[in-house]
Design a protein that fits this description.
The protein has about 290 residues and is mostly helical. Helices cover about 80% and strands about 0% of the residues. The mean pLDDT is about 80.
Length: about 290
């Protein structure tokens, strides 16, 4: 019965996907006119990988269906950008893990059919949501690391400007001094600005928008107003670097306080367990003698 239900659902979803592929919906005329009049967006700075292994190959047929359903959301798309993962690979992994959860549970035939069905649905939902949680966690870690690297980058630029370097040269040399992922993104943004003959603050602002790093977007907006005057740029960079150092120290202190508070929970549980272990035999003897 379970296999029959799942096969029927799969056949229905496949027929619906085939119908959408054969007869795609037509966009309205005003939308087409808006597309023609809209200027193309600048090329993205962050390069996304497209290799997802076996999960991508297994879940590739379901990607278009999930796209039609509106996945991924805008917030998750920004998290995928900072983790350098393409939306197609992510959706394919979600579909592959959900399908794997269904197949693993349905193999347990001796149990009643309701138990494998409930377990299959639970594993499918868990496999469907697991890639989202992993992407959000990795994106949060990368944003924190990028903010620390941005503070070091601003300090280097400030020192180079104080030593007599030009604005463009100071930015390029400071970005090339680091070897981490954040410095690679900064170097790529500056290279794009040089190749397209645009302002470096514009591409740095675009990078901040793609990675959802508000500090970088605000810095690019402030420095674009300062122009190319060395004194104003140095003052803005020094102020922003000091603000980032202060914010980094505050975040580290808050994380340490949170870790300390979490450490009190195991100690409290151990104390409760010790009390129960000591007083339970005595309480049992008292209650049995009554």
């Amino acid at each position: 019965m379970t296999v029959l239900i799942l096969l029927s659902a799969g056949v229905g979803a496949g027929l619906w996907a085939l119908w959408v592929w054969l007869i795609p919906p037509r966009p309205p005329l005003d939308e087409l006119v808006t597309r023609l009049r809209t200027e193309p967006d600048p090329p993205p700075i962050v390069v996304r990988t497209g290799d997802g292994g076996w999960a991508q190959r297994l879940g590739r047929p379901f990607v278009e269906v999930m796209r039609i359903l509106g996945l991924p959301q805008s917030a998750l798309s920004r998290d995928l950008a900072i983790t350098e993962r393409s939306a197609e690979v992510h959706l394919a992994e979600k579909a592959a893990l959900a399908l794997t959860g269904l197949l693993l549970t349905l193999g347990d035939r001796p149990l009643p059919w309701t138990v494998p069905l409930a377990g299959a649905l639970a594993l499918a939902v868990g496999g469907f949501l697991l890639p989202d949680a992993m992407v959000r966690s990795e994106a949060a870690k990368r944003r924190t690391a990028f903010r620390h690297a941005l503070g070091a980058f601003l300090n280097l630029v400030h020192l180079l400007l104080a030593g007599g370097s030009g604005v463009d040269g100071a930015l390029t040399d400071a970005a090339g001094a680091g070897h981490g992922w954040a410095f690679q993104q900064l170097s790529r943004a500056l290279d794009l600005a040089r190749l397209t003959r645009t302002s470096p603050w514009q591409t740095l602002g675009q990078l901040g928008d793609e990675l959802e790093i508000n500090e970088l977007s605000e810095l690019a907006a402030a420095l674009s107003l300062a122009g190319t005057e060395g004194a104003k740029v140095r003052a803005s960079l020094a102020a922003k670097a000091a603000a980032l150092r202060h914010q980094g120290g505050s975040d580290a202190e808050a994380a340490a306080n949170a870790a300390t508070e979490r450490m009190t929970l195991p100690a409290a549980l151990m104390a409760v367990g010790f009390i129960v272990f000591v007083f339970y035999p005595a309480l049992t003897n008292v209650t049995s003698s009554l």
